[in-house]
Design goal:
Layout: H1 2-17, E1 30-31, E2 51-56, H2 63-78, E3 86-92, E4 107-110, H3 113-117, E5 128-131, E6 137-141, H4 147-167
Parallel strand pairs: 2-3, 3-4
Antiparallel strand pairs: 1-6, 2-5, 5-6
Helix pairs in contact: 2-4
């Protein structure tokens, strides 16, 4: 009788100590730690009271960059009824980089050079970032080069965003 009650405890201890158990993670992106806000880099939130999918535009927009911009627009459309709650934002360090996107339907945000130098160590250009309505940067999705991985990355971004929108009462 003692063996019946002790066996599950012993098995659990063994599984945890041997690292055979991988905890389940439901998010696809990387949580941004420590907390990061627009105010940390002296930027004004361009879409107050809305969730944002931000794309960090590189200095030279190559084929991958153009594909990511297209997928950003498609992802926003794919939100369906939640589309009004989310704003696609494109950020660049140089205002001239945003000139070609003027009529694209994105909210364009030019960030000063300080934005790239200090406080941005954990971000890279061509990353996607989910930003909450209060201006806190929540999750990042690192750049991938392969077309299949890029599509999977945006599917993960949409899944995470839908969960956040479902749970959020803000935005």
């Amino acid at each position: 009788m003692l063996l019946i009650f002790a066996l599950p405890v012993i098995a659990a201890k063994l599984i945890l100590s041997m690292h055979w158990y991988q905890p389940g993670v439901t998010n696809h992106g990387q949580l941004i730690e420590p907390n990061f806000h627009y105010q940390d880099v002296q930027l004004i939130n361009p879409a107050i009271h809305s969730w944002q999918i931000a794309y960090l535009l590189p200095d030279q927009c190559d084929a991958v960059c153009e594909q990511q911009l297209h997928l950003l627009k498609q992802s926003h459309i794919a939100l369906g009824k939640d589309q009004p709650r989310v704003v696609p934002v494109v950020m660049a360090s140089n205002p001239e980089d945003l000139a070609t996107l003027k009529d694209s339907g994105f909210v364009l945000l030019s960030a000063p050079e300080l934005w790239h130098q200090a406080n941005m160590q954990s971000f890279a250009t061509q990353d996607f970032v989910l930003i909450d309505p209060l201006g806190q940067w929540v999750m990042r999705y690192p750049t991938v080069r392969d077309q299949g991985e890029l599509t999977d990355e945006l599917k993960g971004l949409l899944a995470d965003l839908r969960k956040l929108l479902k749970l959020s009462r803000v935005g």
